[in-house]
Hints:
Blueprint: E1 13-19, H1 25-36, E2 40-42, H2 43-52, H3 56-66, H4 73-84, E3 92-96, H5 102-110, E4 119-124, H6 127-136, E5 137-139, E6 146-148, H7 175-189, H8 191-197, E7 201-206, H9 211-223
Parallel strand pairs: 1-3, 1-4, 2-3, 4-7
Antiparallel strand pairs: 5-6
Helix pairs in contact: 2-3, 4-5
The structure holds adenosine monophosphate (AMP).
Amino acid sequence: MAAANARVGADAVRVIILGAPGAGKGTQAARLAAHLGVPKISTGEMLRTAVAKKTPLGEKVHPVMEKGNLVPDELLVALVRERIAEPDCDRGFVLDGFPRTLPQALGLEEMSERPRAWVVFDFEVPREELMKRLSGRRWCPTCQATFHLLNNPPRREGTCDECGTRLIQREDDHESVVAQRLHEYDESTFPLIEYYRTRARMIPIDANRPMDVVFGDLLLAIEVRA
Length: 226
Ligand code: AMP
C-alpha cells in the first residue's frame, strides 16, 4: 500500500485495546502483536520517545503528559495516520492507547476500511487494583519495557531484562499524576466503550487475572474473528 494512502488493507488484523491506565494494555498489546506478526502501535511510547529525544513534538507534549492530561486530538490523529501508512502495517496492527477520545475514534475510522471488522478489547480492572499496579510499575527509559515490583519483577532487581538499563518509575505513574490520568480516562475514554459496542466487535476482558490467562482469552477472541 502506498505510503501516501493511509488506508490499510481490508483483510488486515486490526485490534484496539481500551482500558484505564494500569490495566495492562501495553504488556498484552506487545505479546499479541508479536504473536500475530504485526506491529504494536503505542501512542504513549511514541510520545515518550519524542520527549526523550527533545523533538519539536516532544517539547510540545511534555508539559501536557507530565500533568497527566491528554495530548490534543489533531496531534494524535496525525501521528497515527502517518504510522499506519508505513508498509509494516499492511497486514494489520495492534493499537495501544489510541483512540482515547471520540474525535480520535472518528479520525481512525476515516483512515481505515471496514471498521466493523476491528476487534476492540475493553480491559476491565477494579480501581484499587489499578492504583496498586501503577504504583508498583517500573519502566525502562531505553527500550520502554515495563515491569512490576510484585506481579512481573525483572530477573535482576532494578534492571531491565531486555537491555540492562536501570529501571525507573515513569513520571506520570507518580501518585499525584495518576489521579488526573484516571480522571481523563473516565471523562474521555470510557465513553468509547459504548461507541464501539455497535460499531465493531467489542469484547470485554476481565484483565484482573494472571497475564497468561488474559492473553489466552485474547487469542481465542482473535481466532474466532469473522
Ligand atoms: P500511556 O503510555 O498510553 O499511558 O500514555 C501516556 C500519556 O501520553 C498519556 O497520559 C497522555 O498524556 C499521552 N497520550 C498517549 N496516548 C494518547 C492519546 N491517544 N490521546 C491523548 N494523549 C495520549
